[in-house]
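Long-time lurker, first post. I've been practising inverse folding by hand and with some scripts of my own, and I keep getting stuck on stretches where the structure tokens seem ambiguous. Below is the full token string for one chain I'm working on. Before anyone asks, I'm not after the true native sequence, just a reasonable design that respects the backbone. If someone could post their per-position residues I'd love to compare against what I wrote down in my notebook.
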């Protein structure tokens, strides 16, 4: 969707995106009269009732973090990061980011999705570092004892 195409191609690209997001039926039911990139972004980015939307998923992440016990600085930072992403998504003007420039490129959409992607990767890395322990690589107990020297029997 980052580039504007002729109407027939645009329709196929939009339909492919909606199928990939498992949202084609919902989209057709809601937006049959005014289909377009902006309405697809309404459904897939800012719709807080659509389980396939970014806003919906960020709300669920925020709820999960709110249920975690404790109030240390790492947890507060995670909650703030999710709140920042939610605010960014809620503030999206889908008509503006769906508009193409003179080169038929949707720069605003590319920038928005890039920023959301970067924010989600940072959030993921922070959650991993805060709540998951990486296991150390396993080494044999003895330098002479390796899997190819084990004797069974």
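-- Answer (accepted) --
I ran through it position by position. Result:
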């Amino acid at each position: 969707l980052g580039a504007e195409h002729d109407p027939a191609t645009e329709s196929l690209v939009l339909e492919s995106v909606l199928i990939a997001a498992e949202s084609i039926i919902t989209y057709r039911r809601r937006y049959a009269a005014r289909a377009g990139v902006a309405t697809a972004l309404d459904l897939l980015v800012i719709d807080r009732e659509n389980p396939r939307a970014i806003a919906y998923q960020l709300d669920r992440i925020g709820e999960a973090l709110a249920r975690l016990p404790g109030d240390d600085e790492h947890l507060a930072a995670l909650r703030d990061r999710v709140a920042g992403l939610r605010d960014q998504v809620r503030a999206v003007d889908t008509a503006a980011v769906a508009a193409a420039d003179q080169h038929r490129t949707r720069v605003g959409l590319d920038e928005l999705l890039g920023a959301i992607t970067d924010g989600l990767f940072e959030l993921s890395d922070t959650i991993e570092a805060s709540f998951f322990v990486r296991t150390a690589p396993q080494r044999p107990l003895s330098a002479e004892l390796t899997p190819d020297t084990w004797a069974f029997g």
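A couple of notes from the structure itself: The chain has a mean pLDDT of 87. The helical segments are 7-20, 24-31, 37-46, 54-67, 73-90, 94-98, 107-131. Happy to go over any region you disagree with.
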